[in-house]
TrEMBL record:
GO molecular function: ATP binding; sequence-specific DNA binding
Source organism (scientific name): Costertonia aggregata
GO biological process terms on file: phosphorelay signal transduction system; regulation of DNA-templated transcription
Domain Response regulatory, residue spans: 7-121
Cited PANTHER family: TRANSCRIPTIONAL REGULATORY PROTEIN
Name of the featured protein: Sigma-54-dependent Fis family transcriptional regulator
Pfam families: AAA_lid_14, HTH_8, Response_reg, Sigma54_activat
Residues that bear 4-aspartylphosphate: D56
InterPro entries tied to this protein: AAA+_ATPase (IPR003593), AAA_lid_NorR (IPR058031), CheY-like_superfamily (IPR011006), Homeodomain-like_sf (IPR009057), HTH_Fis (IPR002197), P-loop_NTPase (IPR027417), Sig_transdc_resp-reg_receiver (IPR001789), Sigma_54_int (IPR002078)
Matches recorded under SMART domains: AAA, REC
Gene3D superfamilies reported in the protein's UniProt record: 1.10.8.60, 3.40.50.2300, Homeodomain-like, P-loop containing nucleotide triphosphate hydrolases
Length: 441
């Protein structure tokens, strides 16, 4: 296990102070995020778990006191340390009244900073034990999933309906659409969120091991089985098992899965005894199971058992109105990770991203943005986008017009600009009045 370091958010419009703070804090083993304005700080606060806020007061636009007030209201348990130039008594009073935990006067030494940071952390009850034991809080896992399009909202609605019961779910969708995220959202927003979520990639485990991995085995069941071992199913008891790439499960495993679904019990490899389990099964596939059934590589009865609830995750090209949201999210994520900064996106770059067809879906989009963030200087422009994006464009069929429609629109526009005067319009269009009359029919 890696030890989690505290995250400290540094806010100052002076880059040099930011870098100085960062150097000092890094050497004290803290992890830092930088923001040059309150606006940037708010974005980071929204997306990231911050354990301590350190902010300057005087900044253009919104000042640090307002940030502290906002944070006091929305993040009451996060300590807030204010760094200030020459505080008057009045200033100091304002700082404390705003909800700041403490303040530090510039210029400061490294040890003064260290003392102030330690004091700030000591001033609030530790939240750490809660967050490290259970991992990410449930809400966060769900909010990782974003989308406002109708297609996405439909998925969110189904998740909401099924999250609290153990009905078996089949998640279908092209590669990279977010199937695993859907499965996690079902688990972590539902009633059984505190029980385990176990993800198994049925395509990645060799066929001869998959059965033992899933259901466990008894000592002596096969050469090398030196002890009794539980499988993924036993480990997921009370929670959810996520069977990814179910289309790749060999028939022997399919037979056993069918039994689990029918009897709600599993049998270890090499054992005669079965065990009762309470596990919700979520299976996912990007292959067409009906085709596999026709080819007799997938059991039809298993397919029906699995598809009690079917969640179809739409490809990105069918929810292109979500592209800007996703782009901003990934730019922010990788901007903070690689540049310690928020990265902007130029308008023409966003235009290209919105029009591309994304055969690799959200995963492809994420990779493109990740790479662009690494290559850019604070802003993603056309230059950082791969050429393929510029040629393979997704034309939304419905909104495209025929040549005739386009022509008529233009003729009408010219005519109206000429105040309805057909002679003038015809002249501009370089056609005679008779042709114009025909076109308007
Ligand atoms: N709605 C969403 N909002 C934000 N990020 C998303 C969303 N859906 C998917 N992602 C991100 O896209 C990437 C791909 O998602 P995921 O791994 O769940 O896809 P998948 O359908 O399981 O892909 P594959 O078929 O290749 O296994 C992940 O990094 C995930 O975090
Ligand atoms: Mg997946």
């Amino acid at each position: 296990m890696l030890l989690k370091r505290e995250n400290i958010l540094l806010v100052d419009d002076d880059i040099q102070i930011l870098e100085l703070l960062q150097r000092h804090l890094k050497s004290m083993q803290y992890h830092t995020y930088k923001a040059v304005s309150v606006k940037e700080a708010l974005f980071i606060l929204k997306d990231t778990k911050i354990d301590l806020l350190i902010t300057d007061i005087n900044m253009p636009e919104v000042n640090g006191i307002q940030l502290v007030k906002y944070a006091a209201e929305h993040y009451p348990h996060m300590p807030k340390l204010v760094v200030t130039g020459f505080p008057s008594v009045e200033d100091a009073l304002n700082v404390i009244k705003s909800g700041a935990t403490d303040y530090l006067t510039k210029p400061f030494t490294k040890s003064e900073l260290e003392a102030a940071v330690k004091k700030s952390f000591a001033s609030v009850p530790s939240q750490k034990s809660i967050s490290t034991k259970t991992g990410k809080p449930a809400a966060n896992v769900y909010t990782d999933m974003i989308g406002e399009s109708e297609a996405f909202q439909k998925v969110a609605e189904i998740i909401d309906r099924v999250k609290d019961n153990r009905a078996t779910i089949l998640v279908q969708g092209e590669s990279g659409t977010g199937k695993e995220l859907v499965a996690r959202a079902v688990h972590y927003t539902g009633k059984f969120a505190r029980a385990p979520f176990i993800a198994v990639n049925c395509g990645a485990i060799p066929e001869n091991l998959l059965e033992a991995e899933l259901f466990g085995y008894t000592k002596g069941a096969f050469t090398g089985a030196n002890e009794n071992r539980n499988g993924f199913f036993q480990a997921a008891n009370g929670g959810t098992i996520f069977l990814d790439e179910i289309g790749n499960a060999p028939l022997s495993v399919q037979n056993k899965l069918l039994r689990v679904l029918q009897e709600k019990e599993v049998t270890k490899v090499g054992s005669q005894k079965s065990e009762k389990l309470e596990v919700r099964i979520i299976a996912a596939t990007n292959s067409d199971l009906e085709e596999l059934i026709a080819k007799k590589t997938f059991r039809e009865d298993l397919y029906y058992r699995l598809s009690v609830v079917v969640i179809k995750v739409p490809p990105l090209r069918e929810r292109s109105s979500d592209i800007p949201l996703l782009v901003v999210k990934f730019a922010r994520k990788y901007g903070i990770e690689y540049k310690d900064r928020l990265v902007r996106i130029s308008q023409d770059a966003m235009g290209i991203l919105e029009r591309y067809s994304w055969p690799g879906n959200i995963r492809e989009l994420e990779n493109v943005i990740q790479r662009a963030v690494i290559m850019c200087d604070g802003e993603i422009t056309l230059q950082q986008l791969p050429d393929t994006l510029k040629y393979k464009i997704n034309f939304p069929k419905k909104s495209l017009k025929t040549l005739r429609e386009k022509e008529r629109e233009y003729v009408e526009k010219v005519l109206s600009l000429m105040g309805g005067n057909k002679t003038k319009a015809a002249k501009i269009l370089d056609i005679d009045r008779k042709t114009l009359r025909e076109k308007l029919k």
